[in-house]
Hints:
This protein is of the alpha+beta class. The protein has helices at 16-26, 31-40, 45-53, 72-84, 94-97, 100-105, 108-120, 197-200, 240-276, 288-316, 322-347, 358-366, 375-386; strands at residues 127-129, 145-149, 152-163, 170-176, 190-196, 205-209, 218-229, 233-234, 278-279, 282-283. The protein has a four-stranded mixed β-sheet. It has a four-stranded antiparallel β-sheet with strand order 2-3-7-6, with no helix packed on it. Strands 9-10 form a two-stranded antiparallel sheet.
Amino acid sequence: MGARSCLIMPTDNNFESLRDGVRSVVSQFDSRYWQDLDQARAFPEKFVDALTKAGWLSALIPEEYGGTNLSLVEASVIMEEINRAGGNSGACHGQMYVMACVVRHGSEAQKQALLPKIASGELRMQSMAVTEPTTGSDTTQLKTFAQRLGDRYVVNGQKVWTSRLQHSDFMLLLARTTPLAAVKKRSEGLSVFLVDLREAVGKSITVRPIRNMVNHETNEIFIDNLEIPVENRIGEEGKGLKYILDGLNAERILIAAECVGDGYWFVDKARDYANQRVVFGRPIAKNQGIQFPIAKAYVNVEAASLMRYEAARLFDAQKSCGAQANMAKLLAADASWEAANVCLQTHGGFGFAAEYDIERKFRETRLYQVAPISTNLILSYIGEHVLGMPKSY
Length: 393
């Protein structure tokens, strides 16, 4: 884990030692570990702690704040390897992209106070409260409001799909600071705040866990007169959406990498089973009806991986990467979902047995057709902002 690498088109050969290092940690958590967690609907505390202690979750934190100052390209390889080994990065990926907002847009005081403790594992900040029940993906319509009263803001509102909050010490909160009717552009008037959950939960923040299809800790939260010091606002008042979107590009790229990891895992599982499973006196991998879908799934995962690298390269160069981040997420999510279906079909009835892990990973990778941004919204973004077609919504 060294200094920031050169911005070149990556290949697997560039990251052999990086991959080996991640695998050495992830390999300590076998199939039984993940199956037991899934059955108990429990958070992988030991897994997240091990990755933190090894330094992998501080990859994007600069060295002067205790991190390893890796590129997003390299961080994406870390996320890919976790999923490729059969794990689930959803429990820890927030630690990568949530604090990226502080790294890029926080004050020096905020960086000094938080980043070294996040890097060491003393603090966790892997939760971000953006989405609301009535607005969904239409972020500019947020109703949660932060009113400035002297040296503090008083916040009231409601958020949903706020993940990993129960296992975080700090959270990013996006709230409106100027009424929508008073701004010139819909994207203005929103601000980002650092919220100390240790003080707020159970007092001004009420948490309602949402049981969901996968073992993923996510919540609906109710905010009642939450007081936030002015110094906990990130950047300028009213410019928060821009800061959040910067972090969301990193999120989409990292999740694309996770989908790539899932895709490789499914392809490997399907290939190995097809080579070993003998029916009618021959391995089923000899049948083109089995072989061709696996090969096609592999091709699509490889292509998605390249798009991920390109998006991450542009992000690291601080160039516009919204289109590439969205395309990487769409291609990788589609590729992993295709590979999941192929893997399940190849295994037949055994694919539904929990001991094979396929049904668990199948559920996990299905999420990325919907979150953190749905496939249809990505296509509408490309249609309008890349291809110049009329706004479709």
